[in-house]
Amino acid sequence: MTVDSAATAMALGSYLVMLSIVLTSAMLTLQRRSAAWMLSLLTTVTAGMALASIVHDVGGMTFLGDPRGTLRTAFDTAAAIGSVTALASAAAAGARFEGGRGSRLNGLALFRRISGALLALLLCAVAVGYLQGGLLLVAAASGALTFGVVLAVRRTGRTGWVGALLVAAGLGVPGMLLAAQGGSGSGPLALRFAQASPENIAVARRILADTPLTGSGAGTFTGLQAAYRDGGDPGSATAPTAMTAVAVEFGIAAPWIVIVLALWAAAVLGRGALRRARDPAYAAAAAGCVVLLTFTAFRDASVTSPGVTMLAALALGLGLAQSQDGSIALGRGPGV
Question: What is the reported pTM?
Answer without folding.
Answer: 0.88
